[in-house]
Design goal:
The protein is mainly alpha-helical. The protein has one domain (2-84). 75% of the residues lie in helices and 0% in strands. Helix 1 (2-21) packs across helix 3 (63-84). The N and C termini lie far apart (39 Å).
Length: 85
């Protein structure tokens, strides 16, 4: 149960920061920020762990985990922005 709450907390934080970076914060609500952050944590963790070979526990309540989630969320928002245009 506590892991689920950590995922929501990290997802909300990462999604909100990524939406501020990508300037989509006005278009997104809290739920969208959480979803983008959680999916971003998966994307960031996959890219960092498997592609770049940087071991990080994405989605964990740690600085590297939050940074990985933000990294993935920014990538996700960039992809979404490209498809919306």
């Amino acid at each position: 149960m506590i892991d689920f709450l950590v995922w929501i907390l990290v997802g909300a934080l990462a999604g909100w920061i990524a939406s501020m970076i990508m300037k989509t914060d006005a278009q997104m609500g809290a739920l969208a920020n959480i979803l983008v952050g959680i999916v971003g944590a998966f994307i960031g963790g996959f890219i960092l762990n498997n592609v770049l070979q940087i071991g990080v526990a994405a989605g964990s309540l740690s600085i590297p985990g939050i940074l990985a989630a933000i990294f993935g969320a920014v990538i996700l928002l960039a992809i979404l922005k490209a498809f919306r245009r």
